[in-house]
Amino acid sequence: MEQFPIFLNLDNFPCAVVGGGDVAYRKACALLKAKAQLTIIAPDICQELAELIAEQNIEHIAQVWTPNLIADMRLVVAATDDETVNTKIYEYCEAHKILINAVDQPAICRYTTPSIVDRSPILIAISSAGMSPVLARRIRAMIETALPQSIAEIAEYAGSIRGKIKQAFGSINERRLFWEKFFTSSIMSRFKQMSEQDKTQLVDTLINGAETQGEVWLVGAGPGDPELLTIKALQKMQLADVVVYDRLVSSSILDLARKDADFICVGKQKSLHLKQQEEINDLLVRLAKEGKKVCRLKGGDPFIFGRGGEELETLVEAHIPFQVIPAVTAAAGCASYAGIPLTHRDYARKVVFVTGQNSIAGEEPDWASLVQPYQTLVIYMGVGKSAQVQQGLIAAGMQSDMPVAIVENGTTTQQKVHTCLLSELTDLHQSKKIGSPALLIIGHVVKLQQQLNWFDTQDENSTPAFKNYLIK
Ligand code: SAH
């Protein structure tokens, strides 16, 4: 360990910032946030610093730095733009046992300030020991996204019931067990929605050792690229006791879920679709009734051809609390990564999402209603029915040279984009082995694909998700 981390209490702690520019201003703000007893030493100060000094009634010594000005300080920030001056300040502070930080001069710092995630009272500090402040900031962003928004309020609430918990449990072990249950309960995801009464009820249930009620989160996992997950989806995945996932959800996405959660694959087989859906609905209810937090993870968006509505109906009937987390749907993800804008002022003012899979076997889509000018048609679950799509649309009046794209494994590193004319769709489907899942995009916008596919398709170094394989 290069440095020793501590959190410093700045109450009644005389601190000085030497310097009057932007950097000095930022350092002063940070110190004031922690209630430092602050003095600014600088003959000239910037506008922002002047306003801060006036607003917060801070002592300002409008002089060039001299050692006597910091003799009584316990912490000093050297923020002048003169490295020799900063070095002199450092030497003085070291000789007089004053904590010193010289901005951007790690060699003359007794302490450094970390990158922080501030959800006070929770405070997370990240340091790279001066090796890479930018990396430390990236890590901070990652932590920010992983923390539930209400973490500060949850911490405060936990503080407010400490006395009660101490009374309820005599031993440290019992108390620790309580807190473990508390911080994995629904409080973490529902704090904002809960009334004071709900919270007290939950705490009492945990004290009595009874099972708390579970809940189900219907979470959209997006089309494939894990980086397209929403922050909320990621948070739910990391809080879940059980992850119930579809075949469409890739292992790289599942890897981001809580490691010790149970994972249940409910990949559907086409022939057993209906029966299996009922079984899934029952499974969700059973798990929630056992008190589990269930993340029902679905490919794309849960409400777009995801049967999310049906699962919710069962949950409502069983009085199970639920939340729905929307996501990037396959049409949006595949189109973007393939370089096909779904709408365009000149080519498409409407976009229609349809399914090629009808709930009534043998029933054909209403092709005529799908043939419209200035429209892009996106067909989910339709590639296997390429022959019917081609025949149906042409018979309903769509021009046979309408451009079509099949996007296979869209947004993943295995993405492939095949383009052809509508009249060639059946042949293309028969001649190429098209992997699953795949999406059909039909419309003039497909013409823009080559134009907007700005990555060199042969270049191994181009961004993988954009690496298209044009097969025409
Ligand atoms: N709820 C999902 C759709 C589920 S239906 C969503 O919003 O995206 C399943 C169909 O979605 C597949 O048959 C395929 O047509 C399409 N699909 C989903 N992910 C895809 C991907 N990564 N690439 C291409 N098509 C995809």
From TrEMBL:
Modified residues (Phosphoserine): S128
EC number: 2.1.1.107, 1.3.1.76, 4.99.1.4
Biological process annotations from GO: methylation
Active site (record annotation): D246 (proton acceptor), K268 (proton donor)
Protein residues bound to S-adenosyl-L-methionine: P223, G299, G300, D301, I304, T329, A330, M381, G410
Family per record: Belongs to the precorrin methyltransferase family.
UniProt xrefs under PANTHER family: SIROHEME SYNTHASE, SIROHEME SYNTHASE-RELATED
Protein name: Siroheme synthase
Species assigned in the record: Catenovulum sediminis
Lineage: Bacteria, Pseudomonadati, Pseudomonadota, Gammaproteobacteria, Alteromonadales
